[in-house]
Amino acid sequence: MAENKHVFFEMTAICVRYGRALALRDISMQMQKGELVSLIGANGSGKSTLLKAILGLHPACEGRIFMDGWEITRLPVEKIVAGGIAMVPEGRGIIPGMTVLENLQLGAFHRKDDISADLNAVYKRFPILKERQRAAAENLSGGQQQMLAVGRAIMAAPKLLLLDEPSLGLAPLAVDELFAAIREMKQDGYTILLAEQNAQKALGIADRAYVFETGRIVLEGKASKLREDPAVRQYYLGGGSMD
Q: Which residue has the higher pLDDT, 216 or 43?
């Protein structure tokens, strides 16, 4: 268990392999309850792999992961989800052939309690989903599908919400709307770990951030300070490696 009893989420010395290739190297990080932490970095830098390791989709080969004092390092995915971690995957992962409402209900599949309050909360946060609750999910616009994916994760009543590249493929207006919703969720007390290539947006809403490059953390700190860091500015303007 984490030594600091106030740490809500912690991983220490996490390594992940894809075959013989080391995809993540010695990743250690912490989160407090209610924080929004961003993982930024280029495509292939390891951000999505880290989220998959947390959820158990690609378990770590070394290191340990704790949430709320509970070790989840190599538990089955279903136990991790039931324990309070929900993920919005890259590409949204909505279920075609099902309605908006059915997709939302699917997010609460492991719950035994009344989900009506959470469903109403999702509709309040994303009114278009209520308007189109009987529509086939695949007929929504890209931005609406991403709202649905986030809403479905909210229906799991997560203690920790993982967002994997939520702005990918969205029009600029849809990106703005999505990040406004994520900011509101943070204000409402959600603990959020956001993997995002759009560094400006990610750093604009985060409390803290970790910068990834080739499977390792190369910078970390308060998001406001990283936004002004010359290396971060250079890197995301195509200036090259931060080694």
A: 216
Instruction: Give the pLDDT of residue 173.
Output: 95
Q: State the SS3 of the chain.
A: CCCCCCCCEEEEEEEEEECCEEEEEEEEEEECCCCEEEEECCCCCCHHHHHHHHHCCCCCCEEEEEECCEECCCCCHHHHHHCCEEEECCCCCCCCCCEHHHHHHHHCCCCCCCCHHHHHHHHHHCHHHHHCCCCEHHHCCHHHHHHHHHHHHHCCCCCEEEEECCCCCCCHHHHHHHHHHHHHHHHCCCCEEEEECCHHHHHHHCCEEEEEECCEEEEEEEHHHHHCCHHHHHHHCCCCCCC
- For 34-60, what is the mean pLDDT? 95
pTM of the model: 0.92
- Residue spans of the domains in the chain: they are 98-152
